[in-house]
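Help! Submission page says 'invalid entity' but I think these are all valid:
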Amino acid sequence: MEKKRSKSRLYILWFVLPAFLLYTLFMIIPLFTSMYQSLYVYNDARELVFSGLENYIKLFTDEMLYARFINAMGNSFKFFLINMFIQNPIALLLATLLATNVKFGNGYRTVLYIPCVLSLVMVAFIWQMILNPTWGIAKDFLGIFGLAHVYSPWLGQKNSALIVMALISAWQNMGVPVLLYYSALINIPQELLNAAKVEGCNSFSLFWKIKIPMVMPMISTVSLLTYVYNFNAFDLIYAIKGPLAGPDFSTDTMMSFFFRTFYGHELQQPNAPMGATLAVVMLLVLLVGVAVYIVWNRWANRKLN
Amino acid sequence: MKKGKIVIVFMLVFIVMLTACSTAANDSSGEKKESEKIEIVIESWRTDDIAVWEDVVLPAYMDRHPEVTVKFNATSNSEYGTTLTTKLQGGTAGDIIMVEPYDYRISLFKEGYLANIGEITTIDADTEHYDEFALSAWQTDEGELFGLPLAAVSHGFIYNKTKFKELGLEIPKTTDEFFSLCQQIEDAGYVALAMGSADEWVANVYGYSIVAPTFTKGEEGRQGLIKKTAKFTDEGFVNAWKFLDGWKEYMPDGYEGIGYSDMTTMFSTEQALMMSAGSWDVAVMAGLVGDSFEVGGFQTPVDKTGDKNYVCLHPDNALALNASSDSKEAAIEFLQWTTTKEFAKVWNDALPGFFTLSKHEVELENPLASEMFSWASKAEGASPRLAYQYISRGDFNTDSEISRLTTLMFLGELTPEEVAKQLQEGYDASYSPKGF
């Protein structure tokens, strides 16, 4: 008996191994090498010299660098918050509607998921075309409702560019949380819902009092994934705005700031150690966020039990 | 939700890489046995010119040298720096590497990835074959040459010649004439200037670089900044921004959302009749416009009648030698070919708008290209883009700050004086001349 059990446990190791190897190779080792790299600086002859924490000190004391850093950090948070509070509620609502056996439910599900499988470069291109002031359809479309005056070239304006991009990103990735919520919602036992109805619940209170608490674990999972993914937002911004993340760095996130620093941009020379420094700081910020999540999750679970 | 995707993608990439590596290894060994051909690879960012290199320039060389195959490998310009650095570090970069002028790639040379061209005696990289102006663009502060000058571009305006004739419009000589011309075009129902601020670099390359030399007396202004005897807040520099600020009125509606590709499309579809442009646009426009209308060019108008005209003639690209190339000898022979008159002829015919930097005089067949080339000799003086040499070093990247602040001016957030002031403060704090 005992022997059999240990054998079956060995099996588990085999299942874990590929993922473990890949993660070690592509995530954990680079993590430590970038920490190591951040302790060096370039001298005038472009040689790497050990310098201790000089990069970190410079990042937090150099006026211009610090301003860019704070700006990028703020933009990353904005990008995440917009995704979090626009994408998630809408996704939950759509999933709830889908789970009520609506007609053509399968069709809607497919349509909602299509943007997720589109190439990001295509998404960026399509939206740039739609929002283009000269031949984009956004202006004409708003005109149908008599709202043409609402239109302005949002992607090129300082105070709207980031918001629009976050919304595009939310639109593109909407399908994933919809599917996750949908799967959680259809797993709610039908008896429970029936019983609640018998007790006099209308659909509104059914949603608030039964469904939401039942999918709460999924909501927290999706929130965590939104945090990790959107805090690293880069691809869409790069595809639309390039490495300078303009206008006036208003769409510059931590990731595009990192990219520009690490690889350089035009006359700005690549500075790998400073890039690594930023990556480490970014890692710490993400870790703090995840730690907050874990503590909150434990607390919520304890309360539930 | 994305993590799962990423892992799957990684695994796929890993598998593809493994298979690709093994087949690639087989292929190369098999090929070598078949023929003893030497292969040279040129790395470049000129994706627009792939066809020209492959169909015209390289065959011209390979016809003479049947033992060599030359390949042209282009990556789009926004990714070129990243790709190049990665390839050089990984040892997979090509033998010949196209490099941007001045401070762009000095770091690669210092890190030992690029060879010292000046030390290779079989290449005629000397003042007999090139102007000092051309050579200095690829020299380190110590005078080591790391790139063999290839081509330069000039800056000014292009206009719809056919429509100008139809409407009876004339080329402007001064900024006042320029603005009244813009008004005439707008009155005729067209957009005057195909220009927008969605791409930040446009504000610099298609804005400040086009107008600055005329307002700041070309080299005098540029050298002044390098020696720190001039300031961005000086009258000439500010006037250049004031001139640009006046463009806003004649740019298309919603220009905040218009990028470079929209600009060229607006011009080529005759929605806009003028565009600030560089000579590299000659080929771009030839492709977009075709025969549908005639494109002409004019120099940047001067501030007041009687002012002298200066033009921005910018050394744009050079060829460097990969220091760890496997076929150095063949690569050097190719580089030497680019110094010859034969090459100059082939190149200037094939790539109108990119003027060879070697001293050979070649007639330009394309009328627009030859018009743009003539500006440099007609003008009082020619100078490269303002902030490419020295002054963009350090943490305050003056060149990209010009893009950023000029864009803010187009967006109406800064006045010309404020742009000048902010730029002067940043440049002044981070740049100090080293005995120039």
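Support: the input was valid. A stray whitespace character was the problem, and the output above is from the cleaned input. The CA atoms of residues 45 and 159 of chain A lie 41 Å apart.
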